[in-house]
Amino acid sequence: MKELDPTYAFHLGLYALSLECILFFAVVSRSQDPYAHEGIARAFSLIFLFQSAAAFTCVLSLQSFKGVFSEVVATASAFFIIATLFVCIPGAALVAIPEMRYRVWKTALTLINIVALFFSAMIVGPKIGNTFDLPYVSDTLQSRLVGAVFGALMMVLIASLIRLVRPPESLKGRSGAVVLASGTIFILLAGAVWAYLADACQFTDSILNAACALPQSFDHNALLSLVTIIANGFVAEGVLRLMAAGTGQDGYIRI
């Protein structure tokens, strides 16, 4: 197993990400009204909740490394990452097709998302070749998780684009789709930079490799956590706008 990242900026970023996500969970889950799209609200509030739990348990495991507690919370972090990914499956389908009358199409898209997530985990993950900094979790599983995260982000992005190109006279929510897609693209771009830098930015005896393009005080993991915090703001705003647009059967309202 590679040496774990001791960067304080990374650990602080995980704490901040956890706090931000729990706040967004509260905002999204409590911003519903009779015309808001409850399916999207439920899906993305759970995504924020599980993301918060994953970040919090990850940083706890890193800071308490070497011990039973660290192993337990690292396993919990992997579980919460998987839970986040699974909730993205129906969440993406609801973004693209919120209407109840298109239930068959929504089910078909959900099944496609399941296959795409599995394919991304099994095929794309090993090709990316990088892992998270989770102690006690095998590199194979972490590689699969990296691939699955990429697949889940692509699902949400494609769903946002589908929502964007659908006729505005039949379904509102184009502005929400644009904002949600923007946040997803930011995370994907940050992930690409993270994957590019990951091999060079390794630690040996708590010293960052000199070949890394970033300083030890703010490495690639810290950069990814910072961009994710910023991008989550776009995601939350996009979700709230989609909730305000309703299911396509009600008039456009604003929360």
CATH classification, class level: Mainly Alpha
* Fraction of helical residues: over 70%
Structural class: mainly alpha
**How many domain units?**
1
Strand order of the largest sheet: 1-2
Q: Could you tell me how far the N terminus lies from the C terminus, measured between alpha carbons in angstroms?
A: 48 Å
* Largest sheet: number of strands, sense, barrel closure: 2 strands, antiparallel
Detail the poorly predicted runs: 249-255
CATH fold group: Rhopdopsin 7-helix transmembrane proteins
What string gives the helices and strands in order? HHHHHHEEH
Transmembrane segments: 6-28, 40-62, 74-97, 104-125, 145-165, 177-197
Keywords: Membrane, Transmembrane, Transmembrane helix
How would you characterize this protein structure?
The protein is an all-alpha fold and 255 residues long. It has a single domain (8-245), classed as Rhopdopsin 7-helix transmembrane proteins. The chain has 7 helices and 2 strands; from the N terminus they run ααααααββα. It has helices at residues 8-30, 38-63, 68-96, 103-128, 139-165, 174-198, 220-245; strands spanning 203-204, 207-208. It has a two-stranded antiparallel ribbon with strand order 1-2. The radius of gyration is 19 Å and the shape is elongated. 47% of the residues are buried.
Could you outline the blueprint of secondary structure elements for this entry?
Layout: H1 8-30, H2 38-63, H3 68-96, H4 103-128, H5 139-165, H6 174-198, E1 203-204, E2 207-208, H7 220-245
Antiparallel strand pairs: 1-2
Helix pairs in contact: 1-2, 1-7, 2-3, 2-7, 3-4, 3-5, 4-5, 5-6, 6-7
Transmembrane segments: 6-28, 40-62, 74-97, 104-125, 145-165, 177-197
Keywords: Membrane, Transmembrane, Transmembrane helix
